[in-house]
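stage 2 :: seqdesign
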């Protein structure tokens, strides 16, 4: 249940109050299997447990988890095009004529109708949770597109969910560059072993990536002296969580260190108890981290309009 990446949005107290109907709203948007002629379907699946009777939300205190599921038909364009060319050649050979654009389009539509029911189906899941006390939407992905798609599913279920992207008052790139260059990290924060430095002057500027590297090393400082800035920086928070923070404030490669996972233990009465404990630990640790991100970068919670 531990997340591996974090894409973040914020919402106001009034929006948080409206989330009380989340479980009921999701019931009409449960994931259904792909139909024979559908390319994909999206919907919600149980975060914990399986089956039609399993709830679509999982709540511990003020945090509620949801999981957006999907089924996508795997029908590569190359396969369709190869089959289309075969049909076009057959018509040319048997009927001695060329196939025009309109007929080619119709043949392709017929092929999709023929092939889609036999295509393999790929399933996907993306988990997220809402912290109604502090106004965070936390999605387990580093892809902005995937996060927006999941947010769209929640909005469709609720009718409205005005969660907004982060709008930092402090420039993340400038602040992280200062942390690395001058060692002025906030209390409780330490450098990790990974950094991506870029020349911000141009979109195609030089890029330097370091992994498993002492970030206090002279070669790293030389890049900074030459004008490069931090676009991603490995960090460790309170010796409990390691992650790579991007200038887009997406948290990548999130890892809970042994001191955290050891607190979870391994003696649970059942799967529900284990899920409750894991989710409680996840949200407690991230609550502390997100509060610090809010403080460091100036990420105010939206006010009620």
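stage 2 :: out
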């Amino acid at each position: 249940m531990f997340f591996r990446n974090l894409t973040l949005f914020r919402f106001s107290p009034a929006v948080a109050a409206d989330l009380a109907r989340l479980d009921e709203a999701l019931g009409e948007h449960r994931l259904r299997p792909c139909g024979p002629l559908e390319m994909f379907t999206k919907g919600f699946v149980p975060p914990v447990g399986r089956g039609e009777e399993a709830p679509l939300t999982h709540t511990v205190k003020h945090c509620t988890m949801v999981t957006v599921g999907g089924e996508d038909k795997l029908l590569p364009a190359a396969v369709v095009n190869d089959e289309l060319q075969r049909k076009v050649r057959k018509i040319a050979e048997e009927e001695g004529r060329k196939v025009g654009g309109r007929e080619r389009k119709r043949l392709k539509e017929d092929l999709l109708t023929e092939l889609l029911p036999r295509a393999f189906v790929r399933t996907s899941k993306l988990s997220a949770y809402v912290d109604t006390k502090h106004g965070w939407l936390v999605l387990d992905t580093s892809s902005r597109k995937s996060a927006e798609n999941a947010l769209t599913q929640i909005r469709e279920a609720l009718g409205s969910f005005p969660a907004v992207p982060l709008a930092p008052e402090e420039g993340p790139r400038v602040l992280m560059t200062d942390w690395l260059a001058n060692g002025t990290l906030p209390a409780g924060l330490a450098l990790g072993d990974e950094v991506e430095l870029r020349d911000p002057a141009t979109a195609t500027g030089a890029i330097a990536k370091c992994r498993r590297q002492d970030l206090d090393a002279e070669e790293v400082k030389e890049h900074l002296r030459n004008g490069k800035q931090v676009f991603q920086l490995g960090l460790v928070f309170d010796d409990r969580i390691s992650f790579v923070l991007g200038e887009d404030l997406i948290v990548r490669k999130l890892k809970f260190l042994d001191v955290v996972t050891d607190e979870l233990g391994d003696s649970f009465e059942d799967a529900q108890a284990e899920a409750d404990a894991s989710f409680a630990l996840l949200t407690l640790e991230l609550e502390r981290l997100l509060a610090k991100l809010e403080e460091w970068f100036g990420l105010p919670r939206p006010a009620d309009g």
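stage 3 :: structure notes
- Residues 11 and 162 are 7 Å apart (CA to CA).
- The longest strand covers residues 63-74.
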